[in-house]
Amino acid sequence: MAQCTLKPDLEFARELTEAGGESLKQCFQCATCSVACPLAPANAPYPRKEMVWASWGLKDKLRADVDLWLCHNCGNCSDLCPRGAKPADMMAAARNVIYKDLTAPSIVGKWMSKPSGLPILFAIPALLWLFVWWIRASCNNGEWFPRAADGRIVFGQIFYGDYTIDPIFMITFFGACYILLRGVMKLWAMFKPEGRMTVIGKTKCWVWHLWDVLWDEIITHRKFNDCEDGPATGKNTPNRKYGHAILVWSFVILAFVTAVVALGHWGGKVIPLIKIETPMPLTFPVKILANIGALMLLCGLALLTARRLRLNPACQGSSFYDWYLLGIIWLVAVTGVLSQCFRLADAIKPAFVVYYLHLVFVWMLFAYLPWSKLGHLVYRTAALVYVRMYGRSN
Amino acid sequence: MSNAILVVGGGFSGLTAAIEAAELGHDVYIVEKSPWLGGRVAQLNKYFPKLCPPSCGLEIQFQRIRKNPRIKCLTLAEVVGLTGRKGDYSVRVRLSPRRTAPHNVDFSLLASTLEGQSPSEFDLGLCGRKGLYKSMPFAFPGRYVLDPSTLSKADAARVAGNKFLDLTEQEREIELNVGAIVVATGWKPYDVTRLTNLGAGSVKNCVSNMQLERLASPFGPTSGRIVRPSDGRAPHNVAFVQCAGSRDQNHLNYCSYICCMATLKHCLYLAEQNPESLITVYYIDLRAPGRYVNVLEKVKALPNVRFVKGKAADAVQAEGDRVRLTVEDAVRGEKLTLDYDLVVLATGMQPSLAGENPPLPVPLDEDGFIAGGEEAGIFAAGCARMPLDVTRSAQSGTAAALKAVQTVKGR
Known about the structure:
Chain A has 394 residues and is mostly helical. Chain A has helices spanning 10-21, 32-36, 48-56, 59-63, 67-70, 76-80, 87-102, 106-112, 118-139, 161-191, 206-218, 222-226, 241-267, 285-310, 320-344, 348-367, 376-389.
């Protein structure tokens, strides 16, 4: 009989515990969870095998495990778990620990992993935008809260698009994209088993699989419905689909609005016809769409936060990663809406201060995306594309 | 002051405690809630260790009770109040009306002519019972019970004139003076309706292990033929779901100790009745304590029994009234979805006192087992204290009797 030597990684087991998997040692491998999960495929279902790998500290096994990303964290497994081992929390924790290692520079992942890192995460953009404010105030004759020539409040006077906001956010955005791309390449390399893997039957390019994932799963949120098909748990667990879908759609709308405004601003320099001036009037279609997006964002957040607060801690806990993401989106949404309100109410000092905070939080949301729970936006998508390429999808 | 001993519960441990104390010369009262003695053992087809029918062991106990004038059996009786202290308790007991004459009148002919039916408690709802009924042929005391709520109008007219039946008998209360108390209130099968993922008792041909005992019993609803309740056909493919509601913090947070052995016994019943049947036992861990391991070896050697490690966590109705189980074979790492003719949920034992508020000053642990109370002269025996098999229940009954005797001795 072939001998197999297990190399437990104690550090990894400890990290998992810190990231929200503290109950995993309760597991006695009864396999209820694999049955509870309606998404788990018949061959090599999850999360039982992940539970035993986690408790043995088998880091390499978990890192190479694509199933970790198939899980949509509905919590059926934890609801039915006879031991309160919370497999759903372990899966989430394992994903968070993997973000932390996957993405360079890993120091940001360390800060992101616990509340004590928050001050640094906040200080970086806070100082950056304060510095911008200081420079621009000097350009405005030392006036920190200037008004436009016609007396209106125009944020662009301090946070001027051409030289400050746009370049900084473009660097941030493309930097995050580059970091994520490297992360995705690393993730796929980890998934690939040693040796050659052959796919029998028709194959298609990953781009088409990505297209399928976007249309079949992300736009429709189909997997959230599939999550409801598990065995009756007898516990009231509301479908997360609506809160999550509203939030995702509001992100899409707000991203679209931002792109239109950027196009209007920069494109307007070449083709004056499409020029968009900010602030836009409230009745301008783009502005209307932006405000609809903001309202949807608040609704989605309220639904998801209410659900998370109602979770039974005996079955499903909420880790720092969960609260960080909800918290930062709340801050972005609230400061965004408030800065518009203060601007319209002509309260100049609160308007500028809140807008400054808005920039800080938006920067935090995007710059730290690869290390935060929001990384699932890219990493889970990448994993879903991978499983389609290799035929492990349903 | 009293030298008498009260035994609450007339199951195997209670009977043992009562008989032991009485044979040492003490007056003993047995207070039994149901109409007959014998408790859960009486419902079994066969019981460990020797796999003999319950009549075998219980008949000996009943003989000893019959012969011993010191033992007074109160059936359809419940303790409703307790005052006093160790050595001098005053116990109020409520006696529900039996409505049949004190001597063992054979009502079988009359009962068979009645038409009204209620679900049989003794047969765990597998069949109905009449308004005038006895659980089984060797029931002790051998008296029928008349239950007016089950009688139809015609039934009521039929029983009205019978001089051995008294429809007007009322409930009454009596008071007993005792020095020590043995609490042998036993256990109840865990309520399957709480097992939502295992069908919550609404899936046809998905029965509990106690129901299977009734199906296998010669005095049960099928005269001992193990068949599917839905159509009376012998099952070919049978699955056992171990730990159904046991070792589960959502249900019973402990191992019920007996369900593994019960399932092994059921495998023997099935293999004996139908050697062609295919049996699968889905388990997390198998417990065969002490020499019971021999039974495990014997069942493992049967060609038609297969053991699969993995808890069946989903049971739904499939075509043809079959039961569809989903389970992960944790050794092979495969999720199986299979249909069975009959599925047996190996449900665990829950102490009868769980969720009750007994008028006895005994501390219960979070699961409802008795934990303490001995300083007050109250001693727990049998499954009221912890999950036990019949042998150990009897032993704990003897132990409780000895402690009770020591409490009242020398007054």
